[in-house]
TrEMBL record:
This is Acetylornithine aminotransferase. Keywords: Amino-acid biosynthesis, Aminotransferase, Arginine biosynthesis, Cytoplasm, Pyridoxal phosphate, Transferase. It comes from the Bacteria. GO terms for molecular function: N2-acetyl-L-ornithine:2-oxoglutarate 5-aminotransferase activity; succinyldiaminopimelate transaminase activity. The modification N6-(pyridoxal phosphate)lysine is found at residue 261. Transmembrane segments: none annotated. Its cofactor is pyridoxal 5'-phosphate. Belongs to the class-III pyridoxal-phosphate-dependent aminotransferase family. ArgD subfamily. PROSITE patterns: AA_TRANSFER_CLASS_3 (PS00600). Homodimer. Its EC number is 2.6.1.11.
């Protein structure tokens, strides 16, 4: 037996300091440690309540510990956990049917995260291009300020150099172009391009919606050059923008779509959706994952899809969005020296800091947290709001009150 192990390890007291002592410092988490949650309410170790407008970075869209999901997962836990990819299972088959019936796609591949979904999408796009056109067609084009994951491949495709520093040499045949710039796209997407990957709304890059004309132009250019168009909807998908996937309200259909985050409401799952023509190029043994599509994740995902992909549910997302945007417009109007004009789609919303407070989005969200409101940032200059899609009018009003209270404290600090 390891002498370092304590027989009471499962109940040993831990604090925020424990993170600094035993975990690799890839994050700088808040001082408070959440221990319990329900809906949009979170409680820390001291028993303090917080209103969560982060959804775990646009993940827990049906709220924490959603009773429907808890019940479904509990039943599946007591039925079948894991098999390995030598076998399929009923939940993943049902989820595959649900997603293909709800989208343009004919085929689904399941994995464990958004990064893995994008990795699969980019590998598939290259394999398709190599097979159909030859090895010269291998370049991948993405946008500056984009974010597509943290594997070496996906972080290199992402357009934020700060995430690749120190990890060189990086994968080759990658190009980055300005977002929403049609002329730059025309110049970059030539016959050697295998795939173009784009977020319909940039999340980590500052919550910047894609211009529908830009996305339509990408579709046309890809059609002309034979490139595969990949939409990264890891953050924007599964109801977040007010439609099941953002592409559906932008009227631009990709060849491959990636999803994760809200698909599992906190249970790890990712999905890559594509057409029969492209999907057949992932033949037996060409790609895989040990845990992807396991019965537990697929059960949660299926219940999420069935709950969110309903007209009344999605209409309420748009209604809640309008209320929050109205509040933020008033907030920015009352404090123009602090905030700019809010932007985004649905319940993925960015509130830019005004010139005098650029670089201080984190300072503002920390002030909000002290008052009991959890918010995100999208870079140093943008406050990001991504509440659960079930957010109530009362919770929207509470968030507005706390944000206003925080501004006064933030200015006075």
């Amino acid at each position: 037996m390891n002498a370092k192990l304590d027989s009471g390890v499962t109940t040993r007291p831990v604090t925020r300091q424990t993170f600094d002592e035993v975990l690799v410092p890839t994050y700088a988490p808040a001082a408070m440690v959440p221990v319990r949650a329900a809906g949009l309410d979170v409680w820390d170790q001291e028993g303090k309540r917080y209103l969560d407008f982060t959804s775990g970075i646009a993940v827990s869209s049906l709220g924490h510990c959603n009773p429907v999901l808890v019940d479904a997962l509990t039943k599946q836990v007591n039925t079948l956990w894991h098999l390995g990819n030598g076998y399929t299972n009923e939940p993943v088959l049902r989820l595959g049917l649900a997603l293909t019936e709800a989208t343009f796609a004919d085929r689904a591949f399941f994995c464990n995260s958004g990064a893995e979904a994008n990795e699969a999408a980019l590998k598939l796009a290259r394999k398709y291009a190599h097979t159909k056109f030859g090895p010269h067609k291998s370049r991948i084009v993405s946008c500056l300020s984009s974010f597509h994951g943290r594997t070496l491949f996906t972080v290199s495709v992402g357009g934020q150099p700060k995430y690749t520093e120190g990890f060189e040499p990086l994968p080759q045949e990658l190009s980055h172009i300005p977002y929403n710039d049609i002329e730059a796209a025309r110049a970059a997407i030539t016959d050697d391009v295998a795939a173009v990957i784009v977020e319909p709304i940039q999340g980590e890059g500052g919550v910047i919606p894609g211009n529908p004309d830009y996305l339509k132009a990408l579709r046309e250019i890809c059609d002309q050059t034979g490139a595969v168009l990949v939409f990264d909807e890891v953050q924007s998908g599964v109801g977040r923008t007010g439609s099941f996937f953002a592409y559906q309200q932008m009227n631009v259909t990709p060849d491959i779509l990636t999803s994760a985050k809200a698909l599992g409401n906190g249970y790890p799952i990712g999905a890559m959706l594509t057409t029969d023509e492209i999907g057949q190029h992932f033949n037996v043994g060409s790609h895989g994952t040990t845990y992807g599509g396991n019965p537990l994740a697929a059960t949660v995902g299926l219940n999420v899809v069935e709950t969110i992909n309903q007209p009344a549910f999605l209409a309420r997302v748009k209604e809640a969005s309008a209320k929050i945007f109205a509040n933020l417009e008033k907030l920015a109007g009352d404090y123009p020296e602090v905030f700019g004009k809010a932007r985004g789609m649905g319940l993925l919303i960015g509130l830019p800091m005004a010139e005098a407070y650029k670089g201080r989005s984190k300072d503002y969200t920390k002030t909000c947290e002290k008052l009991g409101l959890m918010l995100l940032i999208a870079g140093p200059d943008v406050v990001r709001l991504a509440p659960a899609l079930i957010v109530s009018d009362e919770q929207i009003a509470e968030a507005d009150r706390l944000m206003r209270e925080a501004v006064e404290a933030f200015i006075a600090a």
